[in-house]
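sanity check this chain:
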Amino acid sequence: EDKLSLEAEAMVRISSAQEETVGQLEETIEKQNQTIKKTSNSHKKANKERQYIKKELDTVKEQLRQTVDALQNDRDKHESYCSALEENTQKLKYNEAEDVSLNEKLESAKDLHKMQTEKVDGLVKTIENEEYEYNRL
């Protein structure tokens, strides 16, 4: 009977230990399920954040591409304007030199005109004097 009593006590302890172990197992399974749920929620949240960040990054990339295109267009315009400015500067220098040359020719022509006018006036006076002398004789 003592043996049966000891065996019964052992069975009660085993049963109690088993119940405790089952309880711990159920708690552990519950914690695992909660952890799986939290992990799943975290993954969903992370995926949403990644999608949002990707969308924002794509928007920024497009804005950057447009800015780079605009910058290249502006550089091309600047280069064109610089080229036109250089060409116009050269034309202006040529025109200024041509203006100086033409002014010099104009002054020479005026001087020549004045000399020719004086020569003609002298010849007219000479002819008038000759006519006067001719008519006087």
User: Anything to note?
Assistant: The two ends are 197 Å apart (CA to CA).
